[in-house]
Design goal:
The structure holds 3 protein chains of 3 kinds.
Chain A (H helix, E strand, L loop, with lengths): L7 H46 L2 E2 L8 E2 L3 H8 L2 H33 L5 H13 L2 H11 L5 H8 L14 H11 L2 H13 L2 H9 L4 H29 L3 H10 L21 H10 L4 H29 L8
Antiparallel strand pairs in A: 1-2
Helix pairs in contact in A: 1-13, 3-7, 3-8, 3-10, 3-12, 4-8, 5-11, 8-10, 10-13, 12-13
Chain B lengths: L2 H19 L9 H36 L3 H4 L13 H8 L2 H32 L5 H12 L3 H15 L6 H4 L7 H12 L3 H9 L4 H12 L1 H17 L2 H6 L9 H11 L5 H21 L1 H14 L1
Chain C lengths: L1 H18 L21 E6 L4 H17 L3 E6 L4 H9 L6 E4 L5 H6 L7 H6 L10 H5 L10 E13 H6 L9 H11 L1 E2 L5 E3 L25 E3 L2 E2 L5 H18 L3 H12 L19 E5 L2 H7 L6 E4 L16 E7 L7 H13 L1 H11 L2 E2 L2 H4 L2 H5 L4 H8 L14 H14 L6 H18 L1
Helix pairs in contact in C: 2-13, 8-9, 9-10, 17-18
Classes of the chains: A mainly alpha, B mainly alpha, C alpha+beta.
């Protein structure tokens, strides 16, 4: 530090500075303390513990974990048929389900830009389903999309062939996507705000040059709202990998062969709703393979990180930030 | 206020001024023009109406089914005949709904208090105090939002077993008092928009950081804090995974989510009418809360989405 | 900064090492307090029951409370085996746990989740082999550890519609699988659009209780040729059974029989229709079916007027001496490790499992088969129409449950998934598929 030493006043200033700095450090720590303790207790410790457990076999009943080296990881990748199945199902939701829902949200938001009045009413109606608890929504759709349910009855009326949604492995995930679409209200609000924020003069300039509606949409609208699309995509991917509640409710509610089966029907029909988190949950809390579940958890973590980073890195290519717009 | 709505507000003022200034050419317009305008309005609204029907119809069917007999609910009928209003009483007989509701209220209420109390100081420190490493820590806070809950659930579960908290609501409530990344993020964004001059004025008056936070920031940030509280309450009310893992099989502490889901499994999925009635009762409180606090919710979402 | 990081990591590692492991140790057998004064005790009993069965069970529990007035019982319904295991490893175990089936008995016993009941039995000087038939003891113990006792059992046989039999001129129920096929073909009728109106018999694994057929009890199918070595690929009876199923479906329902059967189940109301009054057999849309003895009580409660009869289920052709046996297995009750009141819990368990009066009452009200020699002679049960079939099935020494393993029902789950794929036509090479599922099961044992 370049300080003029020697004079008592400089030393006095220095002491004051140090005391103020210490006070500030204490204040900051005091203010941040809830988060710091929480971070250590609920994030750092469990992450390391989880990593440790992933190298052990531990069932929670027998008292101590037994070291197993890379066994869990090797088993996961080579000997566990449900690992790949659940990973496939999860990627299906992320790669197909999330884009479909974003597209639908955009479509609904665009539909809302047209009416001049009453927008608030529509917005409320579209948003209310997002308030519905996931369990209630899943149960509602478990009923609505069942073989004899209202949805099929209506399709039947229009002579459209109806699958038995929750009993047919080919249609259970599309059914889940329908359920997800019911709840796009949150994303739609953000898209609506973004669509309304696109400066009118850009459209007017395009009109003067004789651009068609589609051209205006592709060249003006999409780039201008691309930050919001990007945001939704990242959120969608993160939540897609953690998809649990709806799959659990549907899986548990649609299965059931035999009266004496003590086994869980999760993932039914025939494993089509077995998502990665569901399989992890089963391994941890039904089969009590805590070590194996921890290994699965870390693999999930790595995958989510990789996908998020990839999404962020490629965003430079297709996300357009107008200077000063934010 | 978010900049987006500032822009919109300014544009609205301009638009209104233009209307006042331009002379009105005719007092009534010819039928042809009126019809055209009417058709255009219908066209503009038609798609919105279709979507409105799509979004509302599940509610309609759920309510209709909740009023059917068990037999009718299993059939293809869409309209109850007769109307079994008694289903709503019957649900209470079948399951201890009131206890589940109480547990949910306790969890949601305490968790909301905890999150608000703990997130405000953290957000303040991350936005209004300048210190080295602030940006890095903020990035870490954001990063924790991306961590799937499943990564930490096994060790956390084992900790709570050791503490003897499994089978109680503590594993759900206590962590709320240690900050929540999403709430911290939202609050920080909002705190950043508060003008520096107000804070400087208070500092000049000799207030310490705590006093500044309490008297200046919190007072101005009431809408954001309300939004954070509402979001947390909603999240806790709807939470399924947490109560599922930590309940230890003890139905005394089931929340409405878990209780409702177990209802299906226990009754092997044949009591659709009661199931739907219970679902309606589960949804209604939160929907009512939303209708009263709409503005706060929507502003909160716009705040994260457009600015984030 | 670096020092702080190392410090944090160090603390984290230390914390990990400290919190792993530890917990309560098993409680050893306690004297059954049969002294004069007793302080009041509340027993926490968990069971899988629900609905009206739960209420009926309560009646028997009240009898116990009358006999031992200082013990009150708190009975919680709707519990599953995983709930029991979770309760044990989170130290919140109940006093008594009632499971719907024996799938996880080996896990309960070998992991120490349930207490070994042999010390309790020795203390009371009871020889359980004189009270309970060996077929039932086999599915409640594992490698010498009797960690559960049976209380009520199920027995699976065939239910058939007598009116439909008469109309098709069938005089006696089928005794072999090929007779089943012939009869089913005669009894099946179709709608004008080709869909199934009345199904003769639905052999799909996921249909109601047909799954019992694929547990091997009617074809002497071996699950394991050696400990932890699955026999699905090596025992030829499995391939024979699955081929029979495929031929059955095409023979009786046509080349698209699988799709038709799926639609048929959908028109019945899906798999959950099994527990409602729109049950296929009860509503006259199903001529013959595999089901358990409890269906007789359900038919009465649902007020169905189906004119039916019961018999042992047909067995695979060419196996002599097997007809008359069937799949059995039912409730198993145990005392979890860490139960707060094991002594009193044993009194209740002993009452439910060995007291003739209790067994008979449970069997009569719930419509299940009792599991003690004495209670099997109950004249009321013998007089109940259609019920004697199941008492005989249970008493047949060749009846049993699938073998118990420490991986619990994982082998059943993997087998069930394979069957679903097979039925859907996704398995081009049967033998290869069977070898594959056998290997998957073997590998599961490594996971522990």
């Amino acid at each position: 530090m370049a300080v003029v030493t020697g004079t008592p006043r400089a030393a006095e200033r220095e002491r004051l500075r140090r005391r103020r700095a210490r006070r500030k450090a204490l204040t900051v720590t005091a203010f941040m303390s809830p988060w710091i303790v929480g971070f250590l207790w609920f994030y750092i410790y469990p992450m390391f513990a989880s990593l440790f457990f992933s190298f052990t076999k531990y069932d929670g009943i027998r008292q101590t974990p037994q070291w197993a080296g890379l066994f869990n990881y090797k088993f996961m990748f080579t000997k566990d048929p449900f690992f790949w199945k659940s990973l496939g199902n999860t990627f299906w939701i992320v790669i197909i389900g999330v884009p479909l829902q974003i597209t639908f949200a955009l479509l609904v938001a665009w539909a809302l830009t047209r009416p001049r009045r009453g927008r608030g009413v529509y917005r409320t109606l579209y948003f209310v389903p997002t308030m519905v608890p996931a369990v209630a929504a899943a149960l509602a759709f478990l009923f609505l999309l069942n073989g004899h349910g209202p949805f099929n009855t209506i399709l039947h009326f229009f002579h459209i062939p109806t699958p038995d949604w929750w009993q047919d492995p080919a249609w259970s995930k599309p059914g889940l996507v329908l359920l997800g679409m019911w709840g796009v209200g949150e994303a739609m609000i953000i898209f609506l705000a973004a669509l309304l924020d696109v400066p009118q003069h850009l459209y007017e300039a395009a009109d003067i040059e004789g651009a068609t509606g589609r051209q205006k949409f592709r060249r003006i609208t999409i780039p201008m709202i691309s930050p919001v699309i990007f945001f939704s995509a990242v959120i969608g991917v993160i939540y897609g990998f953690q998809y649990f509640t709806e799959a659990y409710v549907i899986g548990a509610g649609s299965g059931g062969a035999g009266a004496n089966t003590a086994s869980s029907a999760l993932g039914s029909p025939n494993g089509s709703t077995l998502f990665y988190t569901i399989w992890l949950y089963q391994q941890a809390f039904e089969a009590f393979h805590f070590g194996y579940a921890s290994a699965m958890a870390w693999v999930l973590f790595v995958i989510v990180m990789a996908c998020t980073v990839a999404l962020i890195k490629t965003s430079n290519r297709w996300v357009f930030y107008q200077g000063g717009f934010r | 206020m978010p900049r987006a709505s500032q822009v919109a507000a300014r544009e609205n003022v301009v638009r209104r001024a233009q209307v006042v200034v331009a002379p009105n050419p005719r007092r009534t317009q010819p039928a042809g023009v009126r019809r055209l305008r009417f058709l255009r309005t219908v066209g503009d609204h038609s798609l919105a109406i279709v979507f409105a029907v799509i979004f509302v119809s599940p509610f309609v069917f759920v309510v209709l089914t909740s009023l059917m007999t068990q037999h009718q609910a299993l059939s293809r009928d869409l309209w109850p005949h007769p109307f079994q209003w008694g289903n709503y009483i019957e649900v209470f007989r079948q399951e201890p709904i009131l206890r589940y509701a109480w547990n949910t209220v306790v969890y949601a209420g305490l968790a909301t208090v905890g999150v608000v109390l703990s997130s405000v100081p953290v957000a303040y420190a991350l936005s209004r105090i300048r210190w080295k490493g602030r940006q890095a820590v903020f990035l870490i806070v954001i990063a924790t939002m991306m961590l799937p809950a499943q990564v930490t659930i096994v060790p956390l579960y084992l900790i709570f077993v050791r503490l003897g908290w499994i089978g109680t609501l503590w594993p759900l409530i206590v962590p709320a008092f240690f900050g929540d990344a999403f709430s911290i993020f939202l609050l920080r964004q909002f705190f950043l928009t508060i003008p520096e001059e107000l804070v400087d004025a208070a500092r000049v008056d000799g207030a310490n950081e705590f006093q500044i936070m309490w008297h200046v920031i919190v007072k101005l940030a009431k809408p954001a804090i309300a939004a954070v509280g509402l979001f947390q309450f909603l999240y806790a009310w709807n939470d399924f995974f947490g109560p599922l893992v930590y309940d230890g099989g003890n139905p005394q502490i089931w929340t409405l989510s878990v209780g409702l889901q177990q209802f299906t499994t226990i009754h092997r999925g044949v009591l659709w009418n009661l199931q739907m009635a219970a679902s309606v009762m589960f949804m209604v409180p939160i929907i009512i809360l939303f209708l009263f606090a709409q503005k706060a919710f929507i502003e909160g979402i716009t705040l994260t989405g457009v600015k984030g | 900064m670096k020092r702080t990081i190392i410090g944090v990591l160090g603390i984290a590692m230390l914390a990990v090492a400290c919190t792993a492991g530890g917990g309560s140790s098993a409680v050893s057998a306690v004297d059954t307090g049969s002294g004069a004064t007793h302080s009041p005790v509340t027993l926490n009993v968990w069971s899988f029951y629900s609905g009206h069965e739960f209420a009926q069970y309560q009646a028997v529990l009240s009898d116990f409370q009358a006999k031992y007035p200082w013990i009150s019982i708190k009975h919680t319904p709707g519990k599953s085996d995983t709930d029991y295991l979770r309760a044990v490893n989170s130290n919140t175990a109940p006093d008594l746990a009632i499971s719907p089936g024996p799938d996880n008995v080996a896990k309960f016993c070998s992991s120490g989740a349930y207490q070994d009941l042999n010390p309790f039995l020795q203390q009371d000087g009871m020889d359980v082999t004189t009270i309970i038939p060996p077929q039932a003891l086999r599915y409640t113990s594992y490698q010498g550890d009797q960690c559960t006792l049976p209380v009520l059992s199920d027995a699976y046989g065939i239910y058939y519609n007598k009116d439909m039999f008469a109309a098709a001129h069938i005089t006696s129920p089928p005794k072999t699988l090929s007779e089943l096929e012939t009869d089913a073909k005669k009894l099946t009728t179709f709608n004008p659009d080709g869909s199934i109106k009345v199904a003769g018999c639905d052999p799909l694994n996921g249909f109601y209780e047909s799954t019992a057929l694929y547990n091997g009890g009617y074809s002497q199918g071996q699950w394991y040729s050696a400990p932890q070595k699955s026999a699905f690929g090596t025992d030829p009876s499995w391939a024979k059974l699955l081929t029979w199923q495929k031929n059955f479906i095409t023979d009786v329902y046509g080349p698209d029989g699988y799709a038709k059967l799926r639609d048929y189940l959908s028109t019945l109301g899906g798999p959950n229709s099994e527990w409602s009054s729109s049950h296929g057999f009860e509503t006259g849309q199903l001529a013959m079916m595999m089901d358990g003895e409890w269906r007789t009580a359900f038919i009465t409660t649902d007020k169905s007027n189906v004119n039916y009869e019961t018999a042992p289920f047909p067995v695979m052709d060419g196996i002599t001496g097997l007809y008359g046996a069937g799949q059995i297995g039912g409730d198993v009750i145990g005392i979890p490790t860490g139960a707060p009141h094991p002594a009193e819990a044993w009194l209740l368990l002993k009452y439910l499992a060995t007291d003739t009066g209790a067994e008979e009452k449970l069997a009569e009200t719930l419509g299940n088969v009792p599991t003690t020699y004495e209670s099997l002679k109950d004249p009321k049960l013998l007089a109940t129409p259609h019920f004697k079939t199941f008492l005989d099935i249970f008493a047949n020494p060749k009846s049993g449950f699938k073998p118990l393993t420490v991986i619990g029902d994982t082998d059943s789950t993997l087998w069930g998934n394979f069957l679903s794929d097979w039925e859907a036509g996704k398995v081009p090479d049967l033998q290869q598929g069977l070898n594959g599922v056998a290997q998957q099961i073997d590998q599961q044992f490594q996971l522990g």
